[in-house]
Amino acid sequence: MNTKVSIIIPVYNVAEYLPRCLESCIHQTLHDIEIICVDDGSTDNSLEILRRYARMDSRISVIHQQNKGLPGARNTGLAAAHGDYIMFLDSDDYYAPNACERVWVETKEAPTDIVIFGTNIVPAYPQPEEWYAWTLYTRTQRFWGFTPEVLFENPSAKPFVWRQAFSAELLKKTGIVFDESLRYGEDVIFQMKIFPQATHFAFISDRLYNYRWSRPDSLMNSQVSTLDAKLTKHISVVEAVTAYWAEKNWFREYGGEYLTWVLQYIVPDILGGEDGSLSAHGRRLYQVIQKYGLEQYRKSLNMENKLLLKKIGKM
């Protein structure tokens, strides 16, 4: 069987949600898929559930490892993948029945490095409809060649790899994997590295992914407990991405857009601290900006972002 799509599922203590996740995979309308489940040291009966499903469907493979965190589990899955396209599914979420087929059909219409698709929130998301539409809806469109719009301006390109499918050829060519040194922001780092190295992007409006937002013990809900901790981790993400971009010499073309992203990603939260309690984060961020010479792109900033840069420069 020629494997068209590899689904990588990192698993850690999700016994309650795992059956629905796996059922959504084995009942995909595209049959030529492989389902790679990486049990990341679960202490509940998740591994038992995985092995039971693997006995039922030969397309499911189960890898058990000591806990390495989400990036490490995804990397283990990547190393085992044989599909032409790679998709990532969180183990408490589930796909629409036609998710893999819809992605595959899109890649056959034209050469495609990355496919980005829409998302449903389950249960219904409590935020205002405008926020939901801006963040998780997608508008069908194609981009031929990387432009800053794809990464920085298109709201559909928010860094959630579970709503994206990647060409295995692109992943092999770039050698990009998830950063295992950080257990927060791995999606941001991955996307900021791989998007500038892709040439063909397909955005499709179909909502193929069902994201379970309300699980209280989910990884996303438990990683950051305070704004101070969030900023510490966000700046570590910026440091990792900035170092990579400097190595690739991408600032020469996209320095202004990148600096805008950095400022909008972090500074509003820094300024939200009471009585300057978060100013240390502002100083640390400004040091990163200075270290990599990003101040030279100040002229390309709009007035709002010039003020943000000025404020952290005075902390």
Automatic annotation (TrEMBL):
A GO molecular-function annotation: glycosyltransferase activity
Classification via CDD domains: Glyco_tranf_GTA_type
Keywords: Glycosyltransferase, Transferase
Transmembrane stretches, start-end: none
Protein name (database record): Glycosyltransferase family 2 protein
InterPro entries linked to this entry: Glyco_trans_2-like, Nucleotide-diphossugar_trans
Organism: Candidatus Faecousia excrementigallinarum
Residue span(s) of domain Glycosyltransferase 2-like: 6-131
